């Protein structure tokens, strides 16, 4: 990849050879950085490419614009599903660094909304740095959908009661950046507009260390939780097949609740 920037569809990637830090930016601000199928494919390709770029030793993941880090799967994405409760195609399962066998440290810099499918990315980051504008919520239950993979990811990042409350309260409530910091979901709360700079600063320090030691440490940290995560993920397809409302009904609930108020805590 080298120095400079690369831009493709919904993703922007820049790398600094001197610091060893790459910044991966979800670049669909008009869609609140929601992930469509091309962007999902680009994310997977990005992580695979970074595996082979020895000039990159740490990565920062962020979203373009001020309104959102990422709002999950784009609702306009057409994802056909097998007519079976035992098989399911989830295009977001392959968008994270760990899903693509990348063991270089990844730090998430969050500004604005992070919800739903964004948790696939946050769940596979080493830690999260947040702007005061950051909010976290899970809209699935509000729209008649099972929060399965998302809840598994978040239960490994925050206390069970907090992840359960977020999943069950749906769009009625959002976790503020301050509350996210208090419960350990966020490791650093910055001044307004400072999340990306703070995350890059952390990444530069990390990237200055021997890469094999870093990658071994990331692998060890992930090993501490991956068995439980894999067991939980194995149950997700059936739970989603049993609990999700038909797509048409989901769309009705989404349209009916658009614009309704919510509480930030």
Summarize the structure in words:
This protein is α/β, with parallel strands linked by helices and 265 residues long. It has a single domain, classed as 2-enoyl-CoA Hydratase, Chain A, domain 1, CATH 3.90.226.10. It contains eight helices and twelve strands. A seven-stranded mixed β-sheet has the order 1-2-3-4-6-8-11, with helices on both faces. Strand 1 and strand 2 form a beta hairpin. Helix 3 runs antiparallel to helix 4. It is globular and about 50 Å long. The protein starts with a strand and ends with a strand. The mean pLDDT is 94. It holds the Pfam family ECH_1. This is Enoyl-CoA hydratase/isomerase family protein.
Features:
single chain; alpha/beta; 2-enoyl-CoA Hydratase, Chain A, domain 1; seven-stranded mixed sheet; 8 helices; Enoyl-CoA_hydra/iso
Q: Tell me how many strands there are.
A: 12
- What is the H/E order? EEEHEEEEHEEHHEHEHHHE
Mean pLDDT equals: 94
Shape verdict: globular
By CATH reckoning, the class would read: Alpha Beta
Provide the gyration radius in Å: 18 Å
CATH architecture: Alpha-Beta Complex
Count up the domains: 1
Strand content is 15-25%
Which strand order does the major sheet show?
Answer: 1-2-3-4-6-8-11
Query: Oligomeric form of this entry?
Result: single chain
From the N-terminal CA to the C-terminal CA, the straight-line distance is 41 Å
CATH superfamily descriptor: 2-enoyl-CoA Hydratase, Chain A, domain 1
Tally of separate helices? 8
> What percent of residues adopt helix (DSSP H or I)?
25-40%
Give the class from helix and strand content and strand pairing: alpha/beta
> In the CATH scheme, what's the topology name?
2-enoyl-CoA Hydratase, Chain A, domain 1
Q: pLDDT below 50 for ≥5 consecutive residues: which ranges?
A: none
Q: Note the main sheet.
A: 7 strands, mixed
